Amino acid sequence: MAKTALIVDDSLTFRQMVAMALSDAKFTVIEACNGQEALDKLAGARVDVIISDVNMPVMDGITFVKQARARPQLKSTPIILLTTESQTEMKQQGKAAGATGWIVKPFKAAQLVQVVTDLLP
After folding, report:
1. Are strands 28-32 and 49-52 parallel, antiparallel or unpaired?
2. For the Response regulatory domain, which residue ranges apply (predicted)?
3. Which of 15, 34, 50, 107 has an alpha carbon within 20 to 30 A of 113's alpha carbon?
């Protein structure tokens, strides 16, 4: 059974790049352009991993992670923040919110797939 990934990023280009990398690794991909849209899509879906940007309109990635972690079905779902942010303070905020990992853009597709695969059972 294919694993499902939710990609959350306001940049269509980055969503497409991540989707292509994960689709090539046999993932089913769901996309959202901000944290609120992602939460709405999660209401009716089961996902195995979430990859989210930090800086987005409507709802940023840190707020999204906090709200996702408040949902019982997402307590143990790996959430990776994929962002241009690299400051230690921002990474600490992500970890405190419940993020599982942090990858700085630009990224290599193989690296992303490896991280995602390593986080899944």
Report:
1. unpaired
2. 4-120
3. 34
- The total of structural domains in the chain comes to 1
> Residue 31 is inside which H or E element, if any?
strand 28-32
Residues 95 and 47: their CA atoms lie apart, in Å, by 20
Q: What sign has the CA pseudo-torsion 69, 110, 120, 25? A: positive
| pTM for this predicted structure | 0.93
- Domain range enclosing 35: 4-119
